[in-house]
Amino acid sequence: MYVLETKNMTKTFGGVPVVNRLNLNIREGVCTALLGPNGAGKTTTLSMLGGLLKPSDGKVIFKDQEETDHRQMIGYLPQYPAFYGWMSGIEYLVYVGQLCGLSKKEAIRKGEDLLSLVGLTDGAKKKIAGYSGGMKQRLGIAQALINDPKVVMLDEPVSALDPHGRREVLELMRELKTKTTILFSTHVLHDAEEICDDIYIMKEGEVVAEGTLGELQRNYQQPAIHIETEREIKQWSSTLLEKEWVRHMDVKGKAVTLTVSDLTLSREAILQDPKFHGLAPVRFEIVKTSLEDLFMQVTKS
Amino acid sequence: MDMINWGVVAPLIAIQLILMTVALLDLVKRDQVNGEKWVWAIVIVVFNTIGPIAYFIFGRKTD
Amino acid sequence: MRQWTVMYKKELSEQWRSFKWLWVPLVFMLLGMTQPVTAYYLPDILEQFGGLPEGAVIDIPLPGGGQVLADTLGQFSQIGMLVLVLAFMGTIVSERTQGTWAMVLVKPVSYGNVITTKWAAMLTLVTASYVLGLMSAIYYTFLLIESVPILDIVLGALLFLLWVMFIMTLVILFSSLFKSSGAVAFLTIGMAIVLSIISGFLPDLIQWSPGMLTSHSSDLLRTGETEALVWLPTTVTIVLITGMIFLSVSIVKRKEVIS
Question: Which has fewest Cβ within 10 Å: A76, A155, B4, C247?
Answer without folding.
Answer: B4
